Structures are given as C-alpha cells and as structure tokens.
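Need residues for this backbone.
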C-alpha cells in the first residue's frame, strides 16, 4: 500500500478527471499521520484550492473551534480530508465520475491512517462513505461500523453557518459522540 507521502505525490500530478484542469492546488489532506480521528468533507472550495489545505475558509474556522471545544483536539492532532481532492467549478457537487476517479486516494488515506473514528461532514461525504442515498439528517445521531473503525455522520459546518442554533447543537452532539467513540477505542471497548 502506498504511504501517505506517495499518495500525495501521485495526487499532485493526477489528471484522471476534468477537475485537474481548473485547480490551483490539489487539496490532498492535512494533519497527523498518527491521527485516530479522520474528518471527511466533500471537496475543496475556493479558499482551499488557493491554500492547498482543506477547511481553511469560514466552515473550516468553525470546524477547528468545534473539534477543539467538543473533542479537545487541535486540527493538527486529527487528519482532515475530502472525498474529492480538487475544486469543482462554482462549488458544484462533484460528479459520480469525479468521485470514482478520486476514491482510491481516500481509500489509501483510510488504509494508511487506520483511524479509530471517521466523522463525515455533510450529505455528500456521509452518503459516499456509507454507500447510501439517505441524507445526513436521517443518518446522523448514531454511529456506524466502518471496517475496524466507527463512522459518525454529521452536518457540514457550512450547514451550521447557514442553519443556526439547532444544526450547530446537533453538530456539537455528534462530535461528542465521536469523542466517546475515540475514548472507547483507546480503552479497547466496543464503540457501537
Ligand atoms: N467544504 C468541504 O467539504 N471541504 C473543504 O475542504 C472546504 C469546504
């Protein structure tokens, strides 16, 4: 299995889908290679495309605050990635072709990191990783077995920025669930 560094090098030269033509940077993912927690978003936006790093815009600032407040972890202690590594134009959803072309990078990240807990942020990532068409509003509020890990679906932080207090409170509650799952994994207890 390629290392994270090898995968990142491959991604930086990837032209497997049309998104390659419009990108400034490939946004491979960032954080600690030893992270027990992997957070997965949809795809880079404008700020991320320019910075080459996931979740650096307004959503990212909120995400950083929430993982610090609810899980007690800074961004550098987690690993943050997206389903798709290049920015779709006009922030449209990635197409099935783009997701399929990019999926091996996320699978490689999962295999290399071997996280205890995966938090999917929003409909897109939750559906992609749980292989379902169900929306995150229905999926959230519980955890799911995900290989050796536990998957906790929650809202995208952008939804909390738009949706206000109730969405934010549910996002916080889901992160508390992720924290409990991390603690259970560290103690060798079943997490779901
Ligand atoms: N939204 C995402 O899903 N991912 C990012 O990296 C930024 C915004």
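Answer:
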């Amino acid at each position: 299995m390629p290392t994270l560094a090898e995968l990142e090098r491959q991604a930086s030269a990837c032209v497997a889908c049309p998104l390659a033509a419009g990108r400034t940077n490939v946004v491979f993912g960032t954080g600690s290679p030893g992270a027990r927690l992997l957070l997965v978003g949809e795809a880079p936006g404008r700020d991320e495309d320019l910075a080459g790093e996931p979740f650096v815009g307004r959503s990212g600032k909120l995400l950083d605050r929430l993982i610090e407040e609810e899980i007690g972890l800074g961004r550098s202690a987690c690993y943050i990635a997206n389903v798709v590594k290049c920015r779709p134009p006009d922030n449209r959803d990635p197409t099935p072709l783009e997701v399929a072309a990019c999926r091996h990078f996320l699978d490689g990240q999962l295999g290399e990191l071997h996280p205890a807990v995966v938090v999917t942020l929003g409909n897109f990532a939750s559906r992609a990783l749980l292989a379902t068409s169900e929306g995150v509003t229905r999926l959230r509020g519980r955890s799911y077995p995900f290989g050796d890990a536990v998957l906790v679906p929650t809202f995208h932080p952008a939804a909390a920025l738009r949706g206000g207090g109730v969405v934010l409170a549910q996002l916080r509650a889901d992160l508390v669930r992720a924290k409990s799952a991390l603690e259970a994994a560290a103690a060798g207890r079943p997490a779901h």
